[in-house]
Amino acid sequence: MTTSSHSGSSAGVTRQYAPYVKADWGYANHWYPALLSDELEDGTVKGITIGGHDIAVRRSAGKAYAISDRCIHRGVKLSAKPMCLSEGTITCWYHGFTYGLEDGSLTTIVGNPDDSLIGNAGIRTYPAEEVNGIIYVFVGDEDYGTPPPLSSDLPARVTNDPNNTPVPHLLDEGIVIRGIHRKLVGNWRLAAENGLDPGHLLVHWDNQILVALDRALPLGVNALTDSATEEIDIPDGPKGVMNRYDRPDLYQPVLDNPKVNMKARGTVPHYFRTSLWVPGVLMVEHWPITDVVQYEFYVPIDDHHHEYWEVIATRATTDEDIAEFNFKYDNFMLPLALEGFNNSDVFAREATEEHYTRFDGWNNEMLCDMDYSIIAWRKMAARYPRGFFESPFQDED
Amino acid sequence: MTTSSHSGSSAGVTRQYAPYVKADWGYANHWYPALLSDELEDGTVKGITIGGHDIAVRRSAGKAYAISDRCIHRGVKLSAKPMCLSEGTITCWYHGFTYGLEDGSLTTIVGNPDDSLIGNAGIRTYPAEEVNGIIYVFVGDEDYGTPPPLSSDLPARVTNDPNNTPVPHLLDEGIVIRGIHRKLVGNWRLAAENGLDPGHLLVHWDNQILVALDRALPLGVNALTDSATEEIDIPDGPKGVMNRYDRPDLYQPVLDNPKVNMKARGTVPHYFRTSLWVPGVLMVEHWPITDVVQYEFYVPIDDHHHEYWEVIATRATTDEDIAEFNFKYDNFMLPLALEGFNNSDVFAREATEEHYTRFDGWNNEMLCDMDYSIIAWRKMAARYPRGFFESPFQDED
Amino acid sequence: MTTSSHSGSSAGVTRQYAPYVKADWGYANHWYPALLSDELEDGTVKGITIGGHDIAVRRSAGKAYAISDRCIHRGVKLSAKPMCLSEGTITCWYHGFTYGLEDGSLTTIVGNPDDSLIGNAGIRTYPAEEVNGIIYVFVGDEDYGTPPPLSSDLPARVTNDPNNTPVPHLLDEGIVIRGIHRKLVGNWRLAAENGLDPGHLLVHWDNQILVALDRALPLGVNALTDSATEEIDIPDGPKGVMNRYDRPDLYQPVLDNPKVNMKARGTVPHYFRTSLWVPGVLMVEHWPITDVVQYEFYVPIDDHHHEYWEVIATRATTDEDIAEFNFKYDNFMLPLALEGFNNSDVFAREATEEHYTRFDGWNNEMLCDMDYSIIAWRKMAARYPRGFFESPFQDED
User: Fold this and answer.
1) Taking burial as the number of CB atoms within 10 A of a residue's CB, which of A46, A116, A248, B280 is the most buried?
2) What does pTM read for this prediction?
């Protein structure tokens, strides 16, 4: 076990965002991305897990539905062996329990159409929306009531872009979205913080995309005032924090550290800005190149795994523009940014998990000055918790 | 976690078979199959585990013996590196502790023939019987006393076959038995219930053997009266429940479910009947074809694994009849029935385990009308428990 | 589960070495081997774990340093992605925290040279020594004070060799050491006891090196008096026990066991002697051949794994002698002794672990007369405990 040879504690700070420390399974009662639209062909079923909720996502007559992935009878996953016998229903492959997609009610049992359970039992459903190629699901307490609008759980629309046309919002019309997602080891908060973190540039020091484009990347970026990371709290709307890299009066790049004989590399300056939004969505404006935007979702699966979503959006309406974006996505952005560059972050997050799991890292970390934006995020995420996911596992007899 | 949107509970029913719910490691003080005879050549040792008991099965001078598979000295498994230095003994490969097979007493230590432990220590032995190609072991409390006859832990002899010669009993003379066994994920009770279950025909909907033989398989079979599943409780003999599919007055096949637009397939009727016996033995008469019988054993290994035994028996005494059966077994019954058809059951059981393990399924299931025979089985299995296996694992210091 | 059919308990004996039974994670505040010198090139870092302590071993300007392998910031392992930017420091690859190797103090952060943590935080270091090709680290309580000399944690220098020149000590000048180490399943005590154990010759019965050299190996060696295993307790120096196989008045070989029809094999007598030293170092004099010595270290990693070290030392100063030893090591001692012969011990230790882990073996073993030297070792190891490693893992929130 590591032991510090100097005193140091962040317990005082920890108390300022106690709900966040508690949110090991994630925040409940939020919209999360479930699947990319093109992963769910009509008539099919896919199983996912968000915050411990096993959910079957089913497309029927073109529309995406989300329903509990546990048959009420013997508890098997419906998605283990998808069976769709009619539009508007999903059938359990084991004993034929058939549920309506709208309300989850048990509408028939294949081998026993007169069973007394029919009409008197069911499984829960989840609100689902599909916009611009992403299927979102609202996951949380069954009695939560009407969910807030999807837009309140996405980054705010950018209006103050200093140099260019503001990057598109995920719900904008006339945009194209491409992306990937994958299950990673690591708590969702470690992933989210890694995305925003102004102090981790070192892991990208040698990434091929930066070398190829000769991008100027400082060793670090240091806040000059407390307002360098802006808190954005829109009533009934998005909550997040933004590193105002667009404001030279707020940030100073570190270009040289003679103690370790390191200098910043690259000569081509490039403007971008990072912000992180509840319940765990990163926006990187003008990344990896100007006029596109990279969004990342850190969707809690359980307390030690998250689904890492990376999507890139751009404005494109003509076939020619769309084809051009797709070509650049397939042959440049996907391999060099989403995979090449971000894989360094994946390594870092997975390497961080051990300490937080085995050594109670949330109470045994030592934050530094560079962590101002991490702390701002934690406080923001702790401000209005709608609910907390909890372990669904029950003890055996 | 699944949450019902309707009320529903089987707690009242659960109380009627409480000993069964408790039997997560299996029922103790019963005969269980240990090995097929041809898996144990003379002079060899194989290690098995039944209900948490690690047992070394050793054949010496033709006879099969069962003895604890833990050396009393440092606790290694004797079967880890079999060492048989003389008939009637088994020797631990580590320090040479040598035990008599009849009573388990420590008869010598290879490197120290005068050790004071010799004659004053030993390991337990288990009663073993070998009949018709199967070695059975009686496993349970060491002080249980004289075990009941093996026949009391096997299905009863069939006497009321309606159409054909009754199928042979496992202890009959003049029969041939072929089969396989394998370790599966899943509690033994989930496996046993799956075997009897009249409600799971859907998982066999598309099995090749049914399509090839054009067998008429209904969507379900529904009991018309409470006596459709017969309770069989023979004094000092087998205890079990039988789905009386031979009685058209008791069962009605479901051939059509218009709600999901499904109809039963196949045109060739075929008579069979299923029954399940304590401590976990299935008999399927005239399956997969008329005049043979399929037995299945669901032998508890621990609370989450069982050894799945599938054997087929037939009457055959002449070399020609035996050769004909073996040919059909190797090229039809093994690939299409024991593997092809039953692998759908294997999938179902393994898929069911997660709910029962993580979500306390025994108290969080919702049984339906089709489960009448499952409940009859649970009550029968709970009626006269001879004992319960328990986890053998002890806490570390 | 094993159950004795006879009474038997070693509880009375167990109380005589209670601190040893407690030492499941190993004894703290001792010197342990960390790496072979040639495994750590200049400028590189390797991560190891001893008694639950994750340690980064770094060579800088030729010298080996040991430092905590957990960055104080977010707890990642420094060795996960070694980053050495200047002599005398080690840098965390994630956020650039840079520590001095001498005292572990935080000397800079790559991207934030003015961070207020710099100079006010740090990680612990461990004393390290490098002698004759082995890097040793002193691991234990951070406030232990000045460590005892390395020699106190190695076998004593042999002075009473009866037939030959005494074998060399690990700290002697003019010697050559070759060896290997590997991570094994099994508590370190099971490994140490296996090394000394006079009763386990049976596992080596058929080893190729013995057959090739026609070595006379008895079935067992039995002590004639209580002093057969000598206790060696040097003030401020090594503590150990030695099987005095050099004294024919103390030991009698067992050459025949008619009960199991076994006789000792081999005709060529060979003198060797085994001794075991705190905190877990075996010395086998004149093994595998006369004039060389085999040392083994059983270094605790956690409570269920140890690092198994096997090294052979000989006197050699001329290039010709060194080349001759290396040739014999590569083509005879390594394959036939360290791997061939000792792999039988590896098998035995790993097979023993299950019983001690799952069935509380330390309180459920039945020692025999042959275990006199095991008990002597346990008492010696329990006599002056400097400290105990404990599980470093903390509960999660």
Assistant:
1) B280
2) 0.94
